[in-house]
Amino acid sequence: MWQFIAIRIIQGFFTLLVISLLVFLATRLTGDPALVLLPPEASGKADYERMRKQLGLDKPLAEQYFIFLRGAVQGDFGVSIRDRRPTRDLLLERLPATLQLALAGMALAILIGVPLGILSAVKRDSAFDKVGKLFAVLGMAAPQFWVAIMLILLFGAILKVLPTYGREGPENFILPAFVLAWSIMAGIMRLGRSSMLEVLDSDYVRFARIKGLPDGMVVWKHALRNALIPILTFSGISLAGLLNGAIVVEQVFAWPGLGRLMLDGVLQRNFPVVQAAVMASASFYILTALIVDILYVYADPRIRH
Amino acid sequence: MATPDLVLESAQPRLSWRQRVADKRLPWLPIAVLALLLMCAAFAHWLAPHDPKQLNIINGKLAPFENMEHPLGTDVLGRDMMSRLIYGARTTTQISVTALALGAVIGTIVGLVSGYWGGWADAVLMRLTDAALGFPTILLALVVVVIMNPGPVAIILAVLLTVWARFARMIRGDVLTVKGYDFVTLARITGVKAPVILWRHIFPNVANTLMVITSLMVGQIILLEAALSFLGLGLSPGAPAWGIMVAEGQEVILDVWWLSLFPGVAITAVVLAFNFFGDWLRDYLDPKLRRAR
Amino acid sequence: MLWSGIAATLLAASLACGAPAEDAKTTATTDTAAPAATVVPATTAQPTAAPTVALTTDAGGKVTLMNAVWATELFTPRDGVGETATYGRQMHAFWINGNENVQMLPGVLTEWAVSSDGLAWDLTVRDGITFHNGDPLTIDDALFTMEFTFGPEAVTESISPSIQAEASETASIAATGPNSLRVTHTSPKAFFPFFISELSFGIAGVLLPKNYFESLGPAGYNDAPIGAGPFRLEKHVKSEQILLERYADYFLPERSPSFQTLDLRLVPEVATRVAALRAGDADVIEANLAVKDQVEDGGGRFIWAQESSYMWILLPGCWEVQFPCNKKEVRQALDYAIDKELIVNQLYGPEAAASQGWNWVTPNALGYSSDLDPFPHDPEKAQQLLADTGYPNGDGFGTLEVHTWKAGDVPFLPEQAQLIADMWRRNLGIDVDVIVGEAATVRERWFDRQLDGKVIVRANETRWDGGSITNAIYGNPEGGAHLGGRRDDLLKVAKDALAVVDPTLRQQAFNDAYKILREEHYEFGTGYVNLPWGVGPRIASWEPWPVVAYQTAIWTMQLN
To answer: Whole-model pTM above 0.90?
Structure first.
């Protein structure tokens, strides 16, 4: 077990190393931030050279990469090109907003998805089952930004029951969290449903029923226990996905999170910001995957061998 | 030497094609949607009543059914909505098929090699795969689009860069299982060369997984194209593609509602159809899973 | 718009030749060595655009205003890039103010005057100004700010290339009396007052409180900035909200806002901003033409800031002989072949845009006259010109690539490029490809000379005084992306015009130069667009200035 974990951790570091090289090269391929920063009519070579020197872009690529790696190891991702602020500060400013939203979305997805899945298993092949399934899958199939804008217009501008933007209070979380939740709900619902079906077919449920325990209690207790591990692992992976994929939702709901930081970083060729954001979100993804793997091994000893 | 086919078929009794279709309750609706999609894609130039890129600004913002010349109305610049939708099916199909085909080929090769040989090749390839999976998808796409200029090629490449890793991961898992089967061991002992084993014995047994991932992946690709368009880095504005149409229409959604509604519905329908079809395919190919449905 | 900073200093550098002679006329010099009299028409200095005198008591009321882009969200003048103006303008006092007619007015400075050699500017600081913490604004604050903005440190520490360049040419900054200071440059800087006025870009011309700033340091100051402007900062949530409260002791009561709270919000999506306006969550939003009906259906209306951007057709590299466009007649043919009125009216509508002016020389800009308006649509003449230069019906012309991108501020640029391409195909018979790229990439390729012989269709912010653009394109021998010094005759035309400092003569000088440059057709345009602000029912009136893309003249905003 410990050997397995150790190997996975070492692998994780290698993966991060590969990602660091990829993101470094990818940003360099997107162009020259010095040119982006220069005003449109500036064309003096001197301005340009000075700018490159300030940004450290006149150094050889290998040296730039080494500087990036050395800093990254110490948690220092350099200074943002746009505003000369430490990139770490920018990340820490943005991270809470994204984390809150992703967790809220995840919680909502579980709160709606699991009961929906269980109910649709209990009422298998009924109209409820079909409508519920369609509802969950629709969230996965419709473009997120389209859904987001329609919801803002409907609940914000027309019905005027929810705020259109901002993140002051809990009511601000409802719409963006729902948009995120809806996109992953189908998966959670399916897990809930299949766990439930398994439970319903199992001997101990039949036995409990024969004993005359109330149907509802048996169903909920056993189904939930059965569904817990797959739903947790699915949620872990989805959470990592939500952190990466929240760009669109953040953009529509004016949510100042990591996603928008990355988007602006790419458009402005803000290399340090892009590098830091990618390393942060990749670390999170790898960490989640690691935990999920460990959980699996823990839950199913057969995998260990 | 056992043929791979036998391994597959041993799980279920042999039925005629007709019986199997009847038994499995074909998902007619998704199939119809997909057939319509492919038909539009193949015959767009015959089916579309107008040139989808033709600007006709005097006839801008025509509502659906207002003028039967443009049955689904026109956009802000007077382009025919119906033609754009039909050509959009072609663009969407082209992008998805190309990206998926390339992704599946690369991913399958990586997965086969990695799973079959193991060792260093596996370690290196899987770290690459993990890296591709850990790289934020939209960000990767943004970077590719920025490097290459927005357009179909950039989107295909962006999709490809994220998609191959998912194939590689899944296929590798399957290979690890199939590798342990007797007929593979037997083939190895009798001195069959590795490429032959991979192609003749292992690949046919992972083909099912391949088909299922493919059908489920199409939706992701269409949605990624839409998201990129929304962020201003998709296909060129005015290109007949559903993603960019929804993105263009969302600004005026209350006023010129049909601009984003029709392509939005088209995207949703096609993604849904592929998902249902993929689900069905999975059940069909793997009887063990059928019960979970 | 990140690059919207003006390289004003590049212009000033060009004034080296010929400037002193012109200077002498305008500044009524009494002694050639001593500072000259002020250039400012102090008697006409009162702003005219304040319909109601603001109250000195708590006015009450709150305005929520939504922008699409903020800049760095930093508050020192060194951080003065384009959109810092959206919030920095509200909180800070400027050295020199301006009005909607492009006149410079006294701000913190009551007078400014240049020496006859153009090297030294003498500045007089107003008495009785207080910062938001109650500290008086003294000559120490003035010196400190000037040193901070243009001193040697700023050459490397400023994030703005324009400020870096300006700072690198600043020789000394010193007090000359209890209320006056002198800034000396290494070369004549006729542009200096404009650069530190609110008419310039960003917040390069704002004042810092010395003691407060020094006690906190730059990072601490940016977290809790104060200024001497009409609003003080109450709350700042990065990339989300900048909440400003009216500052009761603002030194220009006629420019004090008529309401208490200005709540600035950053909302990148226009659809979200429209929804917020309709829901009553916002009072003023940055809008675009496409959402007009949605704003009006929701009980709001549009208020236009005139001439905020111009639409630009550039022919880079045409000074190289291998391109067909090397011939002036070819360039003119391309212009004649475009029906600008049609494009402007159909894409933007008459309220949003007009085909008037030449590039950055829009009707409110310095140097404009109606004979600079675009060439007429004349396909026959265009065909004739093309045939005369050896490309009858476009034969032998090759394929012309039109590069453009989807701009944030001006909608429909790719569509416009398509329409232009269509007209060239139809009227001239040439092959045209439209290539829509990503903004920064296209710009990079253009600067890198990869787009020579091709066409760029883009938008750019207008400028009151287009001198900096004129200088960069025609007056800068170093220029690589633009014409640079490749046509000595045009270089001279530009430099002669730019050397004129007297505002009254400058209009004519610029106008003469623009007529010559326009004839050359290295660049032309379809016209300019106005920026619409979506305004909700709570706003009774507002008169934003023309030729600025940011919210201006907040003090003219009256609530219901």
So the answer is: no
